[in-house]
Write a structure and sequence with these properties.
binds pyridoxal-5'-phosphate; seven-stranded mixed sheet; single chain; three-stranded antiparallel sheet; alpha/beta
């Protein structure tokens, strides 16, 4: 029975901030007062700490998640006419990261766990295939055993998009360390979110590490010496300082969301919706808790009447967006991704969501009658 009304937004970033408000404020003030705002000690320190946390040799801070992707493909030598395999239900930024360099995204449908179906992956490999982009969607790792085995057999590069899965593991290893490059966005809503735009890559490759450092800063290692045509994609000092605080608390923040997810999975009992599945070797960080329902409009309405927010990640698969009409796909090209886009719904799962709020949401879901 749901009687008393509670107002619960789909997300509330201020709650995570307030958990360690003092630490964030001190970190930001320190940077403001010390007078160094670009590529200083905070960025260097964060890069070291993040590489260590993920279990990689190197980290390079960049301006945002999208930059990590397109620069990775650029530096790996992937460009016009090269094909890169990606899940058909990935986020649009994953696809743009591939196509910005002129490479061609080749879509493979997702499996029951919502990530690229590794049983179908091999069928999409052609002589033009250069890489696989493994997107660990919603915090849930792809099957990296099978994916890396295929990549090895066909001599393909592997880039991981870990923008929704900071700290997630496949077996005992953190995502981001399986392929040639691990890409991370620190957009504020992400698990390891900054307080503005930010991103970073991790790699174990010495040469690639150097290339990223040069490319992000106008192709320059030493001031006014430009080795290549690079770009401006630098992680800000102030964001790096704030991220160092977030990183110190990342495991506890991930654990909190894992607890919320376990509670949802145990307590939601409704034949009008399907709950998310995670493979036994995947340690998911639950960036989103995404249910599926064929009564989505009614459910969104029902939740919203009772003041509970929800979101759709994502309402349109990339192959149907206007930006990608040139690829020549239409409705029916990737039916699994299209069905997901019609049925997925993300319910509140964020740091600071209280037990009472979650019980209220669970009661609502269990009493929903379409
Ligand atoms: C957020 C996100 C990106 C893009 O990151 P920005 O920092 O917004 O550029 C890329 N890939 C995935 C999977 C994301 O979730």
């Amino acid at each position: 029975m749901v009687n008393q009304i509670m107002k619960i937004p789909s997300n509330d970033l201020s709650r995570t901030f307030k958990m360690h408000q003092e630490e964030y404020e001190q970190a930001a003030l320190k940077v403001l007062r010390n007078g160094r705002y670009i590529l200083g000690d905070e960025v260097a320190a964060f890069e070291g700490e993040f590489a260590e946390y993920i279990g990689a040799k190197y980290c390079v801070g960049l301006a945002c998640g999208l930059d990590t992707l397109w620069i990775a493909f650029r530096l790996l030598g992937i460009g016009a006419q090269d094909e890169v395999i990606v899940a058909s239900n990935a986020y649009i930024a994953c696809v743009m990261g591939i196509s910005i360099n002129g490479a061609v995204p080749v879509f493979v449908e997702p499996d029951d766990y919502g990530n690229i179906d590794t049983d179908k992956l091999e069928l999409s490999i052609t002589p033009a295939t250069k890489a696989i982009l493994a997107v660990h969607l919603y915090g849930n790792p792809c099957n990296m055993d099978v994916l890396c085995d295929i990549a090895k057999r066909y001599k393909l590069l592997v880039v991981e998009d870990c923008s929704q899965s900071h700290g997630a593991r496949w077996k005992t290893q953190r995502v981001g360390t399986f392929g040639n490059v691990g890409c991370f966005s620190f957009y504020p809503t992400k698990g390891c979110g900054a307080y503005g735009d930010a991103g970073a890559i991790v790699t174990n490759d010495d040469a690639l590490f150097e290339d990223f450092r040069v490319f992000r800063n106008y192709g320059s290692r030493n001031q006014y010496e430009h080795e290549v045509i690079g770009t401006n994609s630098r992680l800000d000092e102030i964001q790096a300082a704030l991220l160092r605080v977030k990183l110190r608390h990342l495991d506890e923040l991930n654990q909190e969301r894992q607890g919320l997810a376990a509670q949802y999975s145990a307590m939601i009992k409704s034949n009008t919706m399907q709950l998310p599945n995670v493979q036994k070797d995947a340690d998911c960080t639950w960036h989103q808790y995404v249910i599926r329902t064929s009564y989505r409009e009614q459910l969104i309405n029902y939740l919203s009447i009772h003041q509970v927010g929800s979101q759709i990640h994502y309402p349109l698969p990339p192959h149907l967006s206007k930006a990608y009409t040139y690829l020549g796909y239409g409705h029916g090209s990737f039916p699994i991704a299209e069905k997901l886009a019609d049925e997925v719904l993300s319910i509140p799962i964020y740091n600071g969501l209280t037990i009472d709020e979650q019980s209220y949401i669970i009661d609502l879901l269990n009493s929903f009658r379409p």
